[in-house]
Amino acid sequence: MPIKINTFNDPSASGGDTYAYGINDTDQIVGYYQDTSGSAPTDYHGFLLSGGTYTAIDLPGATPGTTFAFGINDLGQVVGSYSIFGNYPNRTSHGFLYSGGVYITLDDPLAGSGGTGAVAINASGQIVGTYGDANGIRHGLLYSGGTYTTIDVPFGANGTFAYGINDLGQIVGYYTNASGEHGFLYSGGTYTTLDYPGANSTSPWGSSPSAIAYWPRTPSYGASSPSKPPTPASSPMRTIRA
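The structure corresponding to this sequence follows.
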């Protein structure tokens, strides 16, 4: 069966691009767009596309142009990041949950100046993302039931980034070590490395109970800010079926 691809652009994206990062089962889409019409070289604003209508997601009190929306679950709860200290990349980031019209800030207590970013949320409200510690090392995080748990791949990792969680609580992302970037699956307390054959680096971004979606990336993008995951690679997305 042919796959239909729809393209879209937020009408508020003045002189910039639109990036879609998350979608739920009711086809609500979240992401962020660029606005080059303001005083900053580039402002970023989150958006929700639902039923053909775009709604801006800009956290009240955040520095204007520093809100990113990355994930949405089937309840319409949105997660992302924002800053209150200047424009990207010169800022400390904070994660957020937007639920029922209310914004809730998410700050991992172990985060240093690298800040916290929330990237994905499942149907149970479990949230994954990243934070940077006082030494500049990146760590994955799981926020569940009001508790933060660090996600660190134990394979000599120099940094761990958690980018997706499914309704079974399985987490995917990537880690870095001396040989580059490698995808991982964390399930049932066990970490499994995911390396796409022939790729310089592998970066999983999402997981369902039966498949993992990822980009095999060449060349590597390197470490990213916890507030803004790297822009998706130009290479096609691949899936691993269970």
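The longest strand covers residues 43-50.
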